[in-house]
Design brief:
- The protein is an alpha/beta fold.
- The chain is built from 4 helices and 5 strands; from the N terminus they run E-H-E-H-E-H-E-H-E.
- The protein has a 5-stranded parallel sheet with strand order 4-3-2-1-5.
- The longest helix is centred in the N-terminal third of the chain and has 14 residues.
- The two termini are about 25 Å apart.
- The relative contact order is 0.28.
Length: about 140
């Protein structure tokens, strides 16, 4: 098991652009269901997926022209809510290299950035690893 990486049932590795498809929504649904069933989960965000946990996203998405009065949570708000509701069972990691490469350096404090060389420790700490997105 990796040093400082808690043992989990599943590691979900989120790769690629999160807004080009239903990729991020599918991962959130999967993570929510795994947690509901009692699993311990870690998520490793890589590539443009590291943009999901930026402090600058705020609590709400920009206003929707189709529903001007609606208020929809931002990705970081949803992730923070999941982390707060599942302490010790959900861990969110971001690839430091991918974050730096994209200028995504202001993550919320709940997200732990790690070097890509440390990814093997996350894999070793999980019983199962699932890659979602592009490589």
């Amino acid at each position: 098991m990796g040093k400082g990486i808690p043992r989990t049932d599943v590691l979900v590795t989120l790769m690629g652009s999160p807004h080009g498809s239903d990729l991020f929504t599918s991962v959130l649904r999967l993570v929510e269901e795994l947690l509901r069933q009692g699993a311990a989960v870690q998520v490793w965000a890589c590539g443009y997926a590291t943009m999901l946990t930026q402090e600058g996203l705020g609590e709400s998405k920009p206003r929707n022209l189709a529903d001007w009065s609606g208020d929809y949570p931002s990705t970081v708000s949803v992730i923070r809510g999941l982390l707060a509701a599942n302490p010790g069972r959900l861990h969110w990691y971001g690839c430091r290299f991918c974050s730096d490469e994209r200028g995504a350096v202001a993550h919320v404090p709940e997200v732990r950035l790690r070097a890509p060389s440390a990814f093997a420790e996350n894999v070793a700490a999980a019983d199962k690893t699932l890659f979602v997105g592009v490589l």
